[in-house]
Amino acid sequence: MVVCGLACWRCRWLLPLLLGLAIIMGIIALAGRGWLESESQPYVQQASLWESCTRGEEDLNWSCESLMDYGWGRAAAATYLVGFVILVICFALAVIAFSVEILRFNFVRGIGGLLFVVAAFQIIGLVIYPVKFTEEIPLTGDNMFSWAYGFGWASTVVVIGCAFFFCCLPNWEDEVLGNIKPTYYYSSPERAPYLN
């Protein structure tokens, strides 16, 4: 029977892999044009973190304006981007930390603290964007915050989960490193007659 819990040294790569997944979702959020989209046809509005585009019902060409012309647009993009850059740094530090045979657990806890900073920056960006967008950009038709915005939140949720695990991992240092000896239970025949 194979058990892959905290005691499994090979399973130490699960946390860096989850951080890699958060990076992939962050890239999709940063590059995606689906932060805000029209909910139904005709599709006349779409927006990314960087720009807002509209078109007429019969028009095929999108007319786009940069959100970087707005202070809140620069703030939302900057906070999310800063969080993403720190996330990439945390991923590199996690790979280094788990590659070393002698794992430095205080170093791992520091990565967890940085991941909470990442989550704070990303949440700030993800909250500023919809609040200020709906206040200052005229919306056409029924709109919804869509898939790319959802990937931004998914990345943030994974980062928060990893932050807790990185911070709590030093509490199980002996289990992770395999320093705990197995416990064997012996029972005599007099105490367990059913084994005869």
TrEMBL record:
InterPro entries: P53_induced, PMP22/EMP/MP20/Claudin
Superkingdom of source: Eukaryota
Membrane-spanning parts: 12-32, 77-98, 110-131, 151-172
Pfam families with a match to the protein in the record: PMP22_Claudin (PF00822)
Subcellular location: Cell junction, Desmosome; Cell membrane; Cytoplasm
Alphabetical UniProt keywords: Apoptosis, Cell adhesion, Cell junction, Cell membrane, Cytoplasm, Membrane, Transmembrane, Transmembrane helix
Record flagged with keyword DNA-binding: no
Membrane topology label: Multi-pass membrane protein
Any one GO cellular component localisation term in the record: cytoplasm
Chief location: other
GO biological process, one term: cell-cell adhesion
Recorded family membership: Belongs to the TMEM47 family.
Cited PANTHER family: P53 APOPTOSIS EFFECTOR RELATED TO PMP-22 (PTHR14399:SF4), P53-INDUCED PROTEIN RELATED (PTHR14399)
Protein's name in the database: p53 apoptosis effector related to PMP-22
Gene: Perp_1
